[in-house]
């Protein structure tokens, strides 16, 4: 991932966290999404993924990164009382 992509992920995560930090911290991916990611990871261990599956897994990892960053930003905002209504 390039520096520009990392920066946009950080910016998006900070933006989401600032909107509703409590909701960001409570967010959990759906069971369906978790099952899909698990299936792709399991398949990757056993065999090679198709191009579309690799792209899908990459997208899921990118979204997971944004969610983790947003949760980290949300926790900091709440800890430091920097939530703006």
How would you portray this structure in words?
The protein has 85 residues and is mainly alpha-helical. The chain has one domain. Helices cover 80% and strands 0% of the residues. It has helices at 3-19, 21-26, 31-46, 51-79. Helix 1 (3-19) packs across helix 4 (51-79). The mean pLDDT is 87.
Quickly describe the structure.
The protein is mainly alpha-helical and 85 residues long. It has one domain.
Q: What is the radius of gyration? A: 15 Å
What is the N-to-C succession of helices and strands?
HHHH
Q: In one word, what is the shape?
A: elongated
Helical coverage, percent range: over 70%
User: What class would the helix/strand composition place it in?
Assistant: mainly alpha
Distance between the termini: 33 Å
Element layout with pairings:
Layout: H1 3-19, H2 21-26, H3 31-46, H4 51-79
Relevant terms:
85 residues, mainly alpha, 4 helices
